[in-house]
Amino acid sequence: MSNQKPKKYIPIEIENSQPKATSLYQAHKKIYPRNTSGFFKNLRWLAIWVTQIVFYGLPWLLWNDRQAILLDISTHRFYIFGLVLYPQDLIYLVILLIIAALALFLFTAVAGRLWCGFACPQSVYTKIFLWIERTIEGDRAARIRLDNMNFGFKKFYKKWLKHSAWITFSMFTGFTFLGYFTPIRELMGNIAHYNLSPWETFWIVFYGFATYGNAGFLREQICKHMCPYARFQSAMFDNDTLIVTYDKERGEPRSGRSRKVDAKQTGLGDCIDCSFCVQVCPTGIDIRNGLQYECISCGLCVDACNSIMDKMEYPRGLIRFSTENALNHHWSQQQIVKKILRPRVLIYTGLLLLLSIGFVASLAMRVPFKVDVIRDRGVMSRIVAGGKIENVYQLQITNASEKSETYHIEVEGLAGLSIASEKSFTVDPAQSRMVAVSLQIEDGTIKSGSHPIKFEIKAHSSHEEISEKSIFFMSR
Predict the structure, then answer these.
(1) Which residues pair with 363 in a beta bridge?
(2) Above pLDDT 70, what percent of the chain?
C-alpha cells in the first residue's frame, strides 16, 4: 500500500468564455409623426386629393358607351379615351416610360425628391393611413400612450377600429386597381352577386393587403431600405439642386430658452432645440444633421420650424428649401432661381420636350387600323381553271377605331396580277377579321421563283392607307 496522501483539488470557478452574440442591426423603432400645419402640409394634401381623385375616379368615366380607361388583357385591347391600342403598339408604352424617367430626372435635378414627398403612392397612402390612425387613436402623445398601455378593452377597441378602417380602405384600393383591367361596373356586379373569379379575388386581396402592409406597417422603411430611387438620387443632385436645408450658421449653437432671452446677446443661434422638426418627419430623421438619403423632401420640417420661429418672433427660414451653393455664398432667392437653368436642366428639358412632341405627333398621325399578311404555306402555288397560277393569302385586318369600317384591297407589283376573290371587307369596331385573298396571273407571264408584290389596303371612310409587302411564288 502506498503511504502517499491523496491530492486535494481546489475548485476553481471558470468564467463562461462563450462569445456573446452581437447584433449588427439596429432594432426598428416605431415612428410617431407629429401633426403640423403650414404651406407644405397643405400642398401635400392638395397632391393627395388630386392623385386619388384621378386614381379612384378614372375607372368610372365613360367614353363612347365604354370605360374610358381600360387595359383589357383578356382581349388584348387597351382603351385610353379615344385610343384603342394593341400589343403591337408597345412602342408607345416604351416612349411613355422614357418620358416619365426623363421627367423624374428633371424634377430631381431641379428640386430633389419632390416625387417622393408629394406624389409617390407609398408616401400618399402612408399619409392617408396616418390620418386614419390620428383620427381614431389621437395625436402623437396619445398614440404613444396607447401603445405603451397594457392590453385592455380600450386598446383593443381602438386598434380594432383602426385596422378595420385600414383594411376597408385597402380592399377598396385593390378593387379600384383591378377596375383598370376588368370593367369596373361589371366587377362591382360580380362582387354584389358573389360571382368573382379566383383571379379577380386574388388580385383584389393581393393589392389590398400590399397597400395595408406597406402603408400601415412598413411605411418609412420602404423609402429608406427598399426603394432604389433613394440610393441613386445623389447621382442626379448637384450643389444647385433645391433641397431641404438647415442653416447651421444661423441656428448654431442651439439651446432651449424662453422667448424673453436675447439670442444674439447670449451668443446662441436661432435653433431652440425643440426637436419639432424631427417629430413631424415621416422618416424620423434630423434634418439638422445635413442632407440624408432618407429625406423625401416633403417640407413638413420647414412648416414645423417656421411655426416655432413665429412663436419665438424670429425670422422664418431656419429650415427651408435652398441649395448648397446658396447657403455657402448667402445667395438671394433671385440668384437661386437663376441657377436653375443650368446645362443639365436644359438638356433634360430639351429631351423631354422633343420626346413629348414626337409622342403626341405619332399618336395624332397613327393609322387607325393594322394589317398582317400571311401566305398560305400549305400550297405555294397552284394551277386553277383557265390555266392561271394562283397564290392564296390570309390578311388579318384589325380595326383600331370604334366604328365599323370597310376596307378595300388592291395589289400591285406584277403586270397582269389580279385579285380573284372579294376586294372589300367590313370589320366591326375594335375587332379583327381574318380574310382570304386569292391572287392569280396567267401562266408563263413571269419567270419561276419569288416575285415581290405589295398589298394596298384603304379605309373607306377615313381614306387612310396601309401598304404591306409580300411575295408571289411562281412554280417551275
Answers:
(1) none
(2) 94
Query: Where do the structural domains in the chain lie, given as residue ranges?
Result: 39-234, 241-324, 369-474
- Give the pLDDT of residue 219: 92
| Residue 432 confidence (pLDDT) above 70 | yes
Grid coordinates representing 407 are: 376596307
* Residue of 418, 456, 465 whose CA lies nearest to 438: 418
Query: Quick one: how far is CA 49 from the chain centroid?
Result: 17
Sign of CA dihedral 190, 196, 199, 200: positive
Burial class for 13, CB neighbours closer than 10 Å (0-12, 13-18, 19+): exposed
Strand (E) or helix (H) holding 231: helix 229-232
DSSP of 327-371, one letter per residue? HHHT--HHHHHHTTS-HHHHHHHHHHHHHHHHHHHHHHT--SEEE
pLDDT for res 463: 82
Assign a CATH topology to domain 369-474: Immunoglobulin-like (2.60.40)
Phi, psi torsion values for 378, nearest 5 degrees = -70, -40
Beta bridge partners of 153: none
φ, ψ dihedrals at 352, nearest 5°: -65, -40
Predicted TM-score (pTM) of the model is 0.83
Question: 64 pLDDT exceeds 70?
Answer: yes
Query: pLDDT, tens digit, for every residue of 329-370?
Result: 999 888 998 888 889 899 999 999 999 999 999 888 888 889
Q: What is the spatial distance between Cα 440 and Cα 430, in angstroms, rounded to a whole number?
A: 31
Report the C-alpha gap between 372 and 361 in whole angstroms.
24
Terminal CA-to-CA distance of the chain, rounded, Å? 122
> Residue 86: which pLDDT band, with cuts at 50, 70 and 90?
confident
Look-up: residue for cell 426603394? 227
Name, in order, each residue with C-beta under 8 angstroms of 374's C-beta and a sequence gap of 6 or more. Answer: 393, 394, 395, 396
Length of the chain: 476
Q: Do residues 284 and 278 make contact, with C-beta atoms less than 8 angstroms apart?
A: yes
